[in-house]
Amino acid sequence: MVIDIHVHPFCKEAAVTPDVQEAVKRMFDPLEPQRREVVQKGFTYLFTQRSIEDIIREMDGAGVEKACIVAMDLTTHYGVELVTNEDVARIASAYPDRFIPFASVDPSMGRAAVDKLVHAVKDLGCRGLKLVPPVQHFDFSDPKHYPLWETALELGIPVWTHAAHQRSHPDSDARLGHPMLVEPVALRYPDLTIILGHCGFPWPWDTWSLVIRHPNVYVDISVFHDLYGHMPWDAYVKYGAENKVLFATDYPLRGGFNDTLTALRNLNLPADFERKILGENAMRLLELG
Ligand SMILES: [Zn+2]
To answer: How confident is the model at residue 16 (pLDDT cuts 50, 70, 90)?
Structure first.
């Protein structure tokens, strides 16, 4: 069983607010016009020509059985939502065997973010929270966000956070992606499940340190499949954390499902470790068993 815990359902069945053209303009304004046009074309294609069935076909082709599909709320910084909580909930309820919906909220919105998360989980059926501190421009360690972590804990959902630098958005603040910003939250809420997204690059050892010390902190292996040689795979095994590494791709932003799958398989990790990464760990974490 292969489970991808980080997929963006960019397709006709999902929405961009206010619209693709304006959203790309706001998010990629500092890019030179030609590059922005490429992004514009790519996004327009995905949101007008691709359907969720196309994504499922690609999953089938690669042998990916289930995927966590994520919303992205960038309201404060850009006034943009790239797929809404309603979208992921609706898509997942149409294909309950294939998709697990992850909501997104904008932590800088304080109480409104907390309320939005409660609504997404209790009313819409979302089963996780997805956050992107370098682009949402918030500090994961700031005590003002504690109510959000307490709410996630009460709701019993995992918090997935982008724990890496970010090259896609020209004005993203890499410092806010540092995995060590999660440390005080992991210490204060030891029962809160936190997934450090994107291998923690360029801080793979800091990430490893968090994962091996905090029982409920995990890492996903999306995006940096070209740098897998720099990831401390053996150290995860040596320190008993082989149950805490999760397969993810960030599809479609870093190629198809096969790019990551092939890079992982080429590592020739011990077969049981590979099996755990590909699906067993996510099964347990997401209680899919
Ligand atoms: Zn992503």
So the answer is: very high
E-assigned strand segments in 49-113: 66-70, 73-74, 80-82, 99-104
The rounded distance, in Å, linking the Cα atoms of 138 and 176 is 7
The reported pLDDT for the residue numbered 168 is 79
Write the burial class of residue 248 (CB in 10 Å: 0-12 exposed, 13-18 middle, 19+ buried): buried
Please state the pTM of the whole predicted model: 0.97
Query: Is 98 in a helix, a strand, or coil?
Result: coil
Q: Ligand 1 centroid vs 251 CA: distance in angstroms?
A: 8
Question: How many Å lie between the centroid of ligand 1 and the Cα of residue 250?
Answer: 5
Q: How far apart are CA 261 and CA 195, in angstroms?
A: 19
Q: Residue 215 and residue 150: Cα distance in Å, rounded?
A: 17
Instruction: Give residue 198 CA to ligand 1 midpoint distance, Å.
Output: 8
Determine contact, residues 196/218, Cβ cutoff 8 Å: yes
Torsion angle, alpha carbons of 5, 7, 12, 13, to 10: 20
Rounded to the nearest integer, the mean pLDDT of the chain is: 96
- Which string of DSSP letters, residue by residue, matches 188-206? H-TTS-EEEEGGGTT-HHH
Pairing status of strand 159-162 against strand 194-197: parallel
153 alpha carbon – ligand 1 mean position (Å): 22
Place of tokens 């069945």: 13
The rounded percent of the chain whose pLDDT value lies above 70 is: 100
Q: Which two tokens stand for residue 146?
A: 């504690």
